[in-house]
Amino acid sequence: MRKLIFLQPDFSICKVSQEELSRFLSQGSSSSFFLSQTEIETTILAETKFLKWKEEKESNWNAFYIEGVISFDTPAVLAPILQCLGSAGISILVQSTFNTDYVFFKSTFQEKVRQSLQESYDILNLF
Description:
The chain is of the alpha+beta class. It has helices at 18-26, 79-87, 110-117; strands spanning 3-16, 33-37, 42-47, 58-66, 92-96, 101-106, 122-126.
């Protein structure tokens, strides 16, 4: 049975200018942050405490990640998780790293997320 590791911090997502991105990176980054940049926008997803200076942001996100290294050849790791959460009416945001996937959900759904996943996954807290 796969393990899902729940993170404690509250996360926020926001769109930033290049100047704001430099400010964020120079302040000493959070322990976990995700950066996306396209020709249209630059987005940061990070612990809220590191984005207090940003007025326009979407806050109150919690997260968990799938424990272990997931090979790029491994099929259908994320799909059953997303299916389960979707069936429970929980909106999510997913960020992938080289090793694993992080699933973000609104803080108000913390208990519902845990209840939806506990039958198929081991739930661990990282706090």
